[in-house]
Amino acid sequence: MQKLAVYTLGFLQVPYIRKILRISGWKVSAGLLGRRASAVGVWGRKPRSKRGINAANRRGLPLLSIEDAFLRSVLPGPKSAPSGLILDEVGIFFDASQPSRLENMLNFDALDDAALMTRARDGISFLRHTGLSKYNPVPRGHTSGLAPGYVLVVDQTRGDASITCGGAFDHTFATMLAKARADHPEKQIVIRTHPAVGPRAKQGHFEVSDLDDRTTFLSQSLNPWDLLEGAAEVYCVTSQLGFEAILAGHKPVVFGLPFYAGWGLTRDQQKCKRRKRALTVEQLFAAAMLQYPTWVDLSSNRACSFEEAARALLARAKLHWLNKTPNVAVGMRSWKRPQMARFLGKPRFENDPTKAAEIAAVRAGRVVVWASQNSYELQTACTNQGVPLWQMEDGFLRSRGLGAALTPAESVVIDDLGIYFNPLAPSRLETLIEASVNLPEVALKRAKALAEVTTRAKLSKYNLALPAYQLNIPAGKRVILVPGQVEDDASIRYGAGEICTNQGLLAAARAANHEAYIIYKPHPDVEAGLRAGTVKNALEIADMVAENAAIMPLIEAADEIWTMTSLTGFEALLRGKSVTCLGLPFYAGWGLTQDLGPSTTRRCAKPELAALVHATLIDYPLYLDPKTGKPCAPELLVERLESGEGNRHWRLRVLAKLQGQFASYAYLWR
Question: What pTM value is reported for the model?
Answer without folding.
Answer: 0.93
